[in-house]
TrEMBL record, chain A:
It is found in: Cell membrane. It comes from Streptomyces tabacisoli. This is Sugar ABC transporter permease. One of its GO terms (biological process) is transmembrane transport. Residues 85-299 form the ABC transmembrane type-1 domain. Residues 1-12 have a biased composition (Low complexity).
TrEMBL record, chain B:
PROSITE patterns: ABC_TM1. The keyword ATP-binding does not apply. This is Carbohydrate ABC transporter permease. GO terms for biological process: transmembrane transport. It comes from Streptomyces tabacisoli. Residues 21-30 have a biased composition (Basic residues). It is found in: Cell membrane. Belongs to the binding-protein-dependent transport system permease family. Residues 99-294 form the ABC transmembrane type-1 domain.
Amino acid sequence: MTTLQPPAAAGRRPARSPARRTRRRWTGWGFIGPFALVFALVFLAPLAYSVYLSLFRTQLIGGTHFVGLDNYQQALQDGQFWDGVLRVGLFLLIQVPVMLGLALLVALAIDSGRLYGKSFFRITVFLPYAVPAVVATLMWGFMYGTRYGLVGDIDSAFGVRLPDPLSADLVLASIGNIVTWEFIGYNMLILYAALRVIPHSLYEAAEIDGAGHLRVITAIKLPAIRGALVIATIFSVIGSFQLFNEPAILQKLAPNAITTDFTPNYYTYSLSFSGQQQNYSATVAIVMGVITMIVAYVVQLRGMRKGA
Amino acid sequence: MTTSTPVRRPAPPRPAAPRLRTPRRHTPGRPRRSVLLTALTGVVLVYSLLPLVWLLISATKSQEGLARSFGLWFDGDFDLWSNIADTFTYQDGVFVRWLLNTVLYVVVGAGGATLLAVLGGYALAKFDFPGKKAVFAVVIGAVAVPATALAVPTFLLFSKIGLTDTPWAVVVPSLISPFGLYLMWVFASEAIPTELMEAARIDGAGEVRTFFRVALPLLAPGTVTVLLFTTVATWNNYFLPLIMLKDSDWYPLTLGLDSWNKQAQTSGGETVTNLVLTGSLLTIVPLIAAFLLLQKYWRSGLSAGGVKE
């Protein structure tokens, strides 16, 4: 199909009237227009509005007035905010590699063709992705319970005393476990899809050269799916920095361990909806957005450079 | 996201396309099934399934049964059916209302998001138009902006124009799926031969007709994939409705379940853990069923998307 047309098509094109060509040039907008319009309403307008908000401050006496970059200065010195940033930073450094590592191992195992019941594995590991964060957190929250939950059941059944997953020391790890559970399958699927499109001739060539399984993985498979890995990492980084649902829902079960400034996102939410500090909340959100973009960008640069 | 221009790579083999018969080998050597590898991967499988099994078992227990029985085994009474009946009738059947709200948000929000993504992806893949690069850069940049960082300003903006506490506040932001747009763009540039579009135009078809008669059928696997992913995103959405809605009559299931759970934690509130759990089960069943039924379609759509990253 591809070899048939081009010469003829190339010959026909100049014959078209200029008016028709101009119309054709704008046709694309007809298709992307609706997306662009809604996008402007729900992305660009709020973005601009939050920048605007961040430059003002509302006080009980004196009302709202322009304060320049004062809010930003406040954010940069805000201990509550930076504690949250450090917390999600720690979360990211541990949870993301664990989750992506497991996802990669499962994807490689399924792709190797050496599993019994391969499609059962593929769909089952993916299923938690279909579970809402609310339900996932409620389930794990109940299972974590030391009194009536599964942890408590195990304690009483075996006469042991397991550490409390909802204690202040462990709650971050417990949240990490919930997020890992939710997203292993999703990431596995992205990596598996990338593995499936590697040309089989590469494996045959490697086989002739006497390469073993591990060598094929390190020399062919991993380089081939590097792009997908970088994408998965960037999505996970953004997800970690946005952490809100799991701590917010778990908060009711662990009120002492999870504060309303537990993550930066939770902090902006609390500032805006309980604290009525909408201008400062917008500022914190922008600072967090910038941090996220910088980290995502660094991940992308490093990921693309490696071995390239 | 990684490159600003699509890199041409060979299209993935399509089952329909005639191919030369080559011995199918997934890895060097004939892959021999391995019990050890299956067992090791099985650990992750058990991890993925365990909470779901726990939920399934717990949904069969009464409130008292939950407290007295072991989490991973059944209680003496089997209360699944009465739990389901109670979930649907508790508080004048508000669960049904939440379910209908969720369906509304999914049909309009996810359906609309898919439509916009298909149209937009088609435009990016198959047309050159002024400002195309700018559109691409802005959308990709927006993916990196934490969506939740925009939530508060979006809320303030929507409350200014009177949209908060209405279904619109949940539906309108759901209409944009940058990931869906990206997936459709990658998919469309592979699935639709430009020559076919040219042929349709020569035959006198307008752009709209070409899109519906030529492009859309070829885009079906990608469309199903995007539809499933936007459906999950909308069905599972929690943060957006949480900030946008006060009136519990407009809650989706996620927010409703959360409110039942909070009620149980509040002192003096009625504890309905059994209904929270049964409601949770009822919330995930439709999505899991959709994924299982449609897996043939969304998987082929996804692997095309995996090519060009």
